[in-house]
Structures are given as C-alpha cells and as structure tokens.
Fold this protein.
Amino acid sequence: MDHREESPMEDLLLPGHAACAGCSAPTAVKLTLEVLGRRTVVVVPACCMAVIQGLYPKTCFSVPLVNIAFEAAAACASGIEAALKRKGERANVLVVAGDGGTFDIGIQSLSGMIERGHKVIYMCYDNEAYMNTGIQRSGATPWGAWTTTTPVGKRREFKKEPKKDLAGIIAAHNPSYLATATIAFPLDLKRKVEKARDSEGPAFIHVLAPCPTGWRYPPEKTFEISKLAVETGIFPLYEFENGKFRITYKPKERKPVEEYLKLQGRFRHLTKEEIEKIQKMVDETWERIEKMEDKSD
Amino acid sequence: MYKVITGNAAAAYAAKLCRVDVVAAYPITPQTTIVEYIAEFLANGEMDCEYIRVESEHSAMTACIGASLAGARTFTATSSHGLALMHEMLHWATYSRLPIVMAVANRTLGPPWNIWADLQDAISQRDTGWIQFYAKNNQEVLDTIIQAYRLSENERVMLPSMVSLEAFVLSHTSEPVDIPDQEKVDEFLPQYNPPFMVIDFENPKTIGNIALPEETAKHRKYIMKAMENASSMIKEISKEFQEKFGRYHGDLLEEYELEDSETVIVSMGTIASTAEDAVNLLREKGEKVGLLRIRVFRPFPERDIKKKLEDKEKIIVIDRNCSWGIGGALYTEVRHSLYPGGPEVVGFLAGIGGVDVTPSDIMKMYEKAKKEKGGSFWYGP
C-alpha cells in the first residue's frame, strides 16, 4: 500500500510549537499523524511533548489531545479506547510518551494496557533521559552516558547500567505489533505506523529521539545522529508482528560506534577502553537479535 | 422490588440502573464484591457496558478519566489503600471537570493491616474537589449513587462524586433494599450528554496543557463556584428524588429529633445511624437530645449547620477519622461553622480502626460531654 494515497498528508502538528531547536520528537509525531489522520486522539503524559504542544489557550495539535499524569498515559488511553468502542466510534488512540513515562514510571500501566489488549498505538519517543526536568538519568539512558544525576567529576561517574531492554519486555507481552524507528528513516517509520494502525490490538513503536539539549550536540546534527544510531547498530530497526521478529534494516557493514558517540558531549569523557566496551555490547546485541530473526519468509 | 442485599450489592445495582458505559476497577477488600456483582451482571447479560479490569486503582481512576473525557458515563469502586493510590488522579478528575461516580467502601489504612470500617480513607481525600456523600444504610447507598450521577452531570456542577459506605457494617451486611424500576431511573437520570466534548474530531481541542498562574487560578475559582452550585443542586435533587421514588435521606444534612433538643449529636455514616437509637434511649430518660447527620461532607453545609445548631446548648461531634494533631475532621468543621459564638462543641474520636460503636457507647459519650466545656477526646480503647 502506498502511504501517500492513504494519508491525508495534512499537517496536523502545526508550526510554532515549543520544542528546542533540533528536537526530533515533533518530527516523529508529525510523520505519525500524517499516517493516522484527523480521527486520532493523542494522549500525552508528563514529558517534553507536554511543553512542546504550547501554552494554554493555544496548542500546536490539530487533533484532540488529552494530557494526563506521568505514569498514567496507557491507562488513560485504555479508558478512551473503551469509551469510543462503547459509542461505536472508529478512531485511532495514540499515546505519545517519553522514555521516563514509558521505561520507568509508566511501565505498569503500559504493561496492563497491552496485557488487556486495548487497540492503542503507544509511541515512545526515547531521548534517553528525563529531558523535560533537565537531563536526569532514566532506565533508558545508555551505559556510559553523562546526565545531571550521573555526572562525571574527579572520581569519574557516569551511567553504569545498560539501557533497559524495553522492547524485549513489551515483546514478552506478545502485542499485536512492535517496532523500532527513527526519523532518519521516515518512510520506514510511516510504514510501521501504518502497520500499528492496521493491527488488531495494542501496538508499540519505540522511536529513538536524539536531543541536542541533553545529548550535547549542535541542533543541526539530529538527522545525522539518528542515522548513525542505526548505521552503527546502536539502535537496530526491527519489528515484531504476529509472533515473528524481523530486522527491517541491516546496515551492509555496521559503522564503529565511536562515530556515533564522538558527536555527543554526553559521551565525551569515555576512554578508548570504554568505547570498546560499548562496541562489544552492540556486537553482542546484534548477535542475539540476528538469531531471533524469523527467516521463514 | 425489595431484595435483601448487602451495601456492595446495592452499589452494583445502582451502577446497573444508571446504565454506566464504562467501569474500570481493581479488587480490594471490602470493595471487591461490588465489581464482582458487576462482572456477574455482565456475564448474565443483565448489564451492558465496557468493563476494564485494570492493573491498579491508579489506572482504574485514570481509565475512568479517559472514558469520561470521551463522553462515557463511568463508574468505579475502591477502598482504603486503593483510594489512597488514586489520590493524584482524584485531583485530575476534578480539574478535568468529569462527572465520575465512585463507591468507596470505607476501610482503615495500614499499617497494621486492618480491613475494618474507618472513614480515614475518604476523609484524607477531602481536598481533592470530589463531592462526598456518606451513607447510613444500603438503601441510601443505592439511591445516592443515582442522585450522584444527576448531580455530577449537571452542567452547573461537573464535578466527580464519591459515595461512602462503611466496611462490613454496610458493605457486607444485608438489609432490605427497594430496587427501583429501570424506567423510573431512566426518567430521573437521562443519558449523559456532556456539555463540552474534548474528543471531537471536527473541532479538536487540547485539554490540560500548560497554563499560566492567572489562567489556572480562574479555572480553580470555577470549581469553588461549582461546589456552591452543588450545595443547592443537592437540595433540589433530593426533593425531586423523593417525589419520584418516595424516599428521602436528607439533603446535605439529615435531622432526627432536632427541633426541641438542647444537646445535639453530630456524626456521619453508620455511627449517625446508631446514634438514632442512642437518642431514643436518652429521650426515654428525659434528656433533650437530638441528632444531625452530615450526609454530604463536601460541599460542607456550613450555613445550614449554623442555622440549625447556633441556638443549641451543646454539640457532641463523633468522628470515625482523625486529622492527626487536632482531632476529628468533622469536629473542626462543625466548630468552624458555628464561629463566632455558638454552643460548646465536644468532639470524640470513636470507632477508629473498626472498633464497634454501640448506642451505649454514644450514651457514655453524652454523659462525658455533659462535664466538658469543649475539646476533643479519644473514646474507646
């Protein structure tokens, strides 16, 4: 199906939003709404998107949008979906949540929503820390990253725990659809949103969302970093559909992780050995996910 | 049709009669049988709604908020720790102006683990902007839930309501309850028609985004106004309910042997019901005592209390809750309502943690109060 025929291509995310320059989250949302169209309710918990949408009485969303408490987006979406079903109304219910509201404080309600099978598209734009409160580490922050709560000083501290495998946790719930995406592969992202929209039950899309403010890089590098995250294998693009796992983009040759890391101030302190450790972690992840891949078709 | 049913069954029948669209609930003793009855009604085809078996009370309230924003009539029920877990979302429901109705089977908060009756759970949610009813019997539980939807969904109110029934004393005790005809309830409570649709694809709106202090203050001022409106609406709705169904449980207050009394016992919930017996026994002994039951704790019937109590000699307030460091929540509110002047007010903290309060206990409090000029006292173990 050609998405350009299906999508209205209307700009449902209006200009003048309040995101930082170079923020990748509005682009992900804009692409998503191009696929989903006007009959979409957006649910936003506490996260950058709560600020990006703009100050009352204005908003940059041209679809109904409900703000809800930090840990509660998936439960709110469950209620909206149930009410629309009750009223016989057909519409998409889309959650747009950050990594804090998804990996950490909101994981319980997200687990409940998927387990109950609500037809909701849950999109996590993952900027790998609590960016809205000012760059504090979350369960999504990668190993080795500087944040304001894992600072690097004379004793050298940085985040010492690897990023939580949220997609693995979600996959264990056996949702109707699960995918990873980045704005550097917009057609891939939109195709995945289409699949999420057309799936029968809950769908989860994990979007890596580079953040110039928190990752410490110049705003114009967002696209390049998004692309490098995939090309280095740090953020593999895959989908999990009807019990089948498939890598949707395989770099011909994975670039060294250093190319991705060196652009970002949050990794500036890392030694050669530490970078090698990250490389090893990425290599191991690829070894693992390539084994997971279903090659039956 | 009369049935001998528990308070929890009465709450479930009420939800069914109100034709709720969405129920989201999580089990907790002693509320659990409410949501079990609803599940049975659904399984038997006696009721038709979306039923979300959520993974926590926080999500129960949040799912009700989502469903209510989408224009559904929503219902949930909880107790104690469940209500405490909802706290954040109770504020959210009020500030979103959603007419959610919830039954609360009042139970002691732990530790120690304790499943018995205590109003601490609901009283702790006093300032969340929910309208609070406290029932004295199972019939009142059923009737009040019906009234609560009428009230909450009124466009001059648009605030959520909780209907409290004490653990076991009502929740698991069977009493004869008149279950009204569906047609009559339908006439009294028409389909929910939200005055303002958030989820409107033709005219999309954003709700709850960041607002500056001035805008937020204005929004909160309307809630104060809505609470005032609720006060007068409760009176109208109680009268209208009486005309339609022939039952009156009071409006914000219910009085008993009040008119010629010199001393008045003030309480809520089932202690107020037990106090009717104590008043009868005391009157047999020639004591001029009456009773004022506070049926609605929020909005608080401040002016009505002053009018009814300012000329009395002594007021005895019995609280099954405690505002630590001062005394019972009702005691402080009643004293405040009578200021300046007014009679002496003696407060008792009784029945805390589910301790039984009998007519003879209330008579003992009455005797003790005779000797006191005011203040708050612990009664019982």
Observations:
- Residues 272-292 of chain A form the longest helix (21 residues).
- Residues 258 and 272 of chain A are 9 Å apart (CA to CA).
- Chain A has one domain: 3-296.
- The beta strands of chain A are 40-44, 65-67, 92-97, 121-126, 177-181, 203-208, 237-241, 244-249.
